[in-house]
């Protein structure tokens, strides 16, 4: 120590910081500085066209509280997120259970269900937009069985349903694969013991499968909830937030305010709100894990 | 399983597969139909006369080849850059003992909680101040260094944590430096994790939509997702035949690569770090 400055631990410290330097500098520059700026902007009235930037304190937050459109956006976001998470996780689990049977052809079906994940998001959305036209393929198929389908993307009730289904089919494969990996990790002897004890399949599913894969359910639900709050391209292509404001979710509203109406200050305030919601939901789910997640590995 | 149960499971699987297969099928077959057949009602499942007119028009109406190249090279650069940044950081957080490692790891993880939509306004102003609006720099730099690469770093860290340490110890005794150990020993072992990170990084960049429409304004700079939505008539209505052919060109190459390498794709994603 006294003779050499470059001891092993000093070398390691230098190496460690050099290795993480790009990520650390990048995080500061492209995550923390913009996050700080979002808070700063949200305290200002910013008119891009007139090029004025004045400090207004909490006025934007007052406007937020008084904005009647915001309530609509939050309701739409709530509907979309809840619908997406419930449908996505239950379908993913169903598919994983079906594919976990010892059957021929499961690799084929796994490939089919995963394939939309690799299709370009906007390409996928355009095709669905085409299929969901009043005279499109979906209604064509429905007519074959004698059903007169609605104009999916132009009806208040059906537009949100359509957006949710399009997004679920696009991404459910990812959660399915994670569930499948978790199901394959459940020890077979647990099921054998339960069968000996006379437990029904349903009982086994609820008392063995669900608890054993609960860490994966937690992980996928966090990923899916956070992802559901970021839906943008689908809305922009399928409905542009309509009809009315029925599919104007928070991110789409933020985009409209900032980049279509050039209200940067108010857009930043909406960003702060979005960040707060993501943070809150993640914390809630993380705390709830103690209640229902069986074990932590 | 009884024969009956098997038939039931296959029936359910086939039914559920419809919404996953039909759109892609419909996209490709419709794009090959002459424009009048595209809107025939009831629609036909198979193109009777094959026509490549819509494909030709996609290249006439926009610099589509250029836009294709833009998306390809941006996604390639982002993938290579992310692999470098995330494997270095992930290795250090898993393998090198240094003061502050845990603290900085938690700080970086905060990025996972920040959707890019939250920071899009200030990022636009920053790149505007640097004169980089309507260039590809924001689409390259932010994913490599910002929030999107944090998940990659996390996955790499999880992978390196699970790697046995003996090889590295032996290399240390032989006098190899940290970077040499990382490059010659750890990195070659990390191929599965690097593959998974490469796949989802490429797809993430290939799919970006909000960022291009915020940052880019001239059509020769556009990326594919943005270009697809620009095939509209004078009234802003989509030109379906052209949109579908351009969408097919965007989706099919990736889909073909996926079908060939589906096992590596799926198992790579399932078994590396994402399990938590």
From TrEMBL, chain A:
Which residue ranges does UniProt annotate as crossing the membrane? 14-41, 73-99, 111-131, 159-183, 204-229, 264-284
Which BP terms in the Gene Ontology apply to this protein?
Answer: transmembrane transport
The UniProt entry lists membrane topology as: Multi-pass membrane protein
User: In this protein, which residues make up the domain named ABC transmembrane type-1?
Assistant: 74-285
Q: Which UniProt keywords apply?
A: Cell membrane, Membrane, Transmembrane, Transmembrane helix, Transport
Localization (cell): Cell membrane
Keyword Protein transport found:
no
This entry carries the following GO cellular component terms, namely:
plasma membrane
- Which superkingdom does the taxonomy of this entry point to? Bacteria
Q: Family membership, please give it.
A: Belongs to the binding-protein-dependent transport system permease family.
Q: What is this protein called?
A: Sugar ABC transporter permease
Organism placement in taxonomy: Bacteria, Bacillati, Actinomycetota, Actinomycetes, Micromonosporales
TrEMBL record, chain B:
Recorded family membership: Belongs to the binding-protein-dependent transport system permease family.
Q: What membrane topology is annotated for this entry?
A: Multi-pass membrane protein
Q: Name one GO biological process term.
A: transmembrane transport
Segments passing through the bilayer: 7-28, 72-94, 101-124, 136-160, 181-203, 242-261
Annotated signal sequence is none
Which Gene Ontology CC terms are recorded? plasma membrane
Q: What is its main location?
A: membrane
Report domain ABC transmembrane type-1 positions: 68-261
Q: Where in the cell is it found?
A: Cell membrane
Q: Read off the Pfam families from this record.
A: BPD_transp_1 (PF00528)
Q: Which UniProt keywords apply?
A: Cell membrane, Membrane, Transmembrane, Transmembrane helix, Transport
Q: Write down what this protein is called.
A: sn-glycerol-3-phosphate transport system permease protein UgpE
Q: Which InterPro entries match?
A: MetI-like, MetI-like_sf
């Amino acid at each position: 120590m006294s003779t050499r400055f470059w001891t092993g631990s000093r070398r390691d410290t230098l190496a460690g910081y050099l290795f993480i330097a790009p990520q650390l500098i990048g995080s500061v520059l492209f995550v923390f500085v913009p996050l700080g700026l979002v808070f700063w902007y949200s305290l200002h009235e910013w008119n891009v066209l007139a090029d004025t930037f004045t400090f207004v304190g909490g006025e934007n937050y007052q406007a937020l509280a008084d904005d009647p459109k915001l309530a609509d956006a939050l309701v739409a976001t709530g509907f979309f997120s809840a619908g997406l998470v419930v449908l996505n996780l239950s379908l993913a689990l169903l598919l994983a259970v079906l594919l976990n049977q010892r059957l021929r052809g499961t690799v084929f079906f796994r490939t089919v269900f995963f394939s939309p994940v690799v299709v370009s998001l906007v390409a996928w959305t355009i095709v669905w937009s085409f299929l969901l036209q009043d005279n499109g393929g979906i209604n064509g198929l429905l007519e074959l069985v004698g059903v007169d389908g609605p104009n999916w993307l132009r009806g208040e009730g059906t537009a949100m349903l359509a957006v949710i289904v399009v997004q679920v089919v696009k991404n459910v494969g990812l959660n399915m694969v994670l569930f499948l990996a978790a199901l394959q990790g459940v020890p077979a002897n647990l099921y054998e013991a339960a069968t000996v004890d006379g437990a029904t399949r349903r009982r086994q599913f609820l008392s063995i499968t669900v608890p054993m894969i609960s860490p994966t359910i937690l992980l996928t639900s966090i990923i899916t909830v956070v992802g559901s709050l970021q839906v943008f391209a689908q809305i922009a292509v399928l409905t542009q937030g309509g009809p009315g404001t029925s599919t104007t979710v928070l991110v789409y509203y933020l985009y409209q305010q900032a980049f279509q109406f050039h209200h940067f200050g108010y857009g930043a305030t909406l960003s702060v709100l979005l960040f707060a919601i993501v943070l809150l939901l993640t914390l809630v789910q993380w705390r709830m894990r103690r209640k229902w997640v069986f074990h932590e590995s | 399983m009884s024969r009956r149960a098997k038939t039931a499971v296959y029936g359910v699987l086939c039914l559920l597969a419809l919404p996953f297969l039909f759109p892609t099928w419909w996209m490709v077959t419709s794009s090959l139909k002459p424009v009048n057949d595209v809107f025939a009602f009831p629609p036909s499942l198979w193109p009777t006369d094959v026509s490549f007119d819509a494909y030709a028009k996609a290249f006439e109406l926009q610099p589509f080849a250029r836009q294709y190249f833009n998306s390809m090279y941006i996604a390639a650069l982002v993938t290579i850059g992310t692999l470098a940044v995330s494997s270095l950081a992930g290795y250090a957080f898993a393998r090198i003992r240094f003061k502050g490692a845990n603290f900085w790891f938690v700080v970086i993880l905060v990025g996972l909680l920040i959707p890019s939509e939250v920071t899009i306004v200030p990022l636009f102003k920053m790149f505007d101040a640097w004169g980089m609006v309507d260039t590809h720099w924001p689409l390259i730099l932010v994913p490599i260094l910002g929030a999107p690469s944090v998940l990659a770093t996390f996955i790499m860290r999880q992978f390196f944590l699970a790697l046995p340490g003996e090889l590295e110890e032996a290399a240390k005794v032989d006098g190899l430096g940290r970077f040499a150990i990382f490059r010659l020993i750890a990195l070659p072992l990390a191929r599965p994790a690097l593959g998974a990170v490469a796949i989802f990084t490429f797809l993430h960049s290939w799919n970006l939509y909000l960022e291009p429409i915020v940052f880019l304004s001239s059509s020769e700079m556009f990326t594919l997702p943005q270009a697809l939505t620009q095939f509209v008539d004078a009234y802003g209505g989509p030109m379906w035949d052209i949109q579908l052919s351009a969408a097919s060109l965007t989706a099919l190459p990736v889909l073909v690569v996926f079908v060939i390498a589906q096992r590596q794709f799926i198992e790579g994603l399932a078994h590396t770090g994402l399990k938590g």
